[in-house]
Write a structure and sequence with these properties.
Length: 171
């Protein structure tokens, strides 16, 4: 039986600590770089939040055939305050992407819907994003993308669990 010296154990511990430190730094660097990706550079005339609002309005119009969504409903889905949502919609309205209206049967609420230009721009951006993601998947390979996504989902679950354990705890 081979005897392991204390020096070897210490080296292994130091190596593991160094490896963990490298992984810790790399994890935060990669997540930071991923967050810095500015996909909306492909469509600079529409902000990320405006596109999110357009997508929500589009889905509401399609699913419920409603002709729009209330400002407060949109704010709730986007997790924005009503003033923040109104400011966002003012910008989108200025760009001709959305229109606001009131309904005779419900004058308490303001509804927003996509304009014809907003619908056209929404479709163009969706097509651009589809082509972009298809190309990324093709270059990376479907199997590798599926593996990465599974690992990211696991990592996210573990990180959420660890965050919830530490919420409100000062270290």
């Amino acid at each position: 039986m081979q005897k392991i010296s204390n020096t070897n154990i210490e080296r292994q511990g130091a190596y593991a600590a160094m490896k963990n430190e490298e992984l810790r730094v790399r994890l935060f660097q990669v997540s930071h770089e991923f967050r810095k990706l500015r996909i909306q550079r492909m469509f600079p005339d529409v902000s990320r939040q405006e596109f999110m609002a357009m997508e929500i309005i589009h889905r509401e119009e399609e699913e419920k055939n409603s002709g729009g969504i209330t400002v407060s409903g949109l704010a709730k889905i986007m997790r924005f305050s009503s003033p923040t949502a109104s400011r966002l919609l003012r910008c989108a309205e200025g760009k001709g992407l959305i229109a606001r209206n009131e309904r005779d049967e419900d004058r308490r609420n303001t509804y927003v819907c996509l304009t014809e230009y907003g619908k056209k721009r929404h479709c163009e951006i969706l097509e651009l994003l589809k082509n972009f993601t298809d190309t990324v998947i093709m270059r990376m390979g479907e199997d590798r993308v599926e593996t990465i996504l599974a690992y990211i989902e696991d990592l996210t679950d573990i990180m959420e669990d660890e965050i919830s354990k530490r919420e409100g705890v000062r270290q």
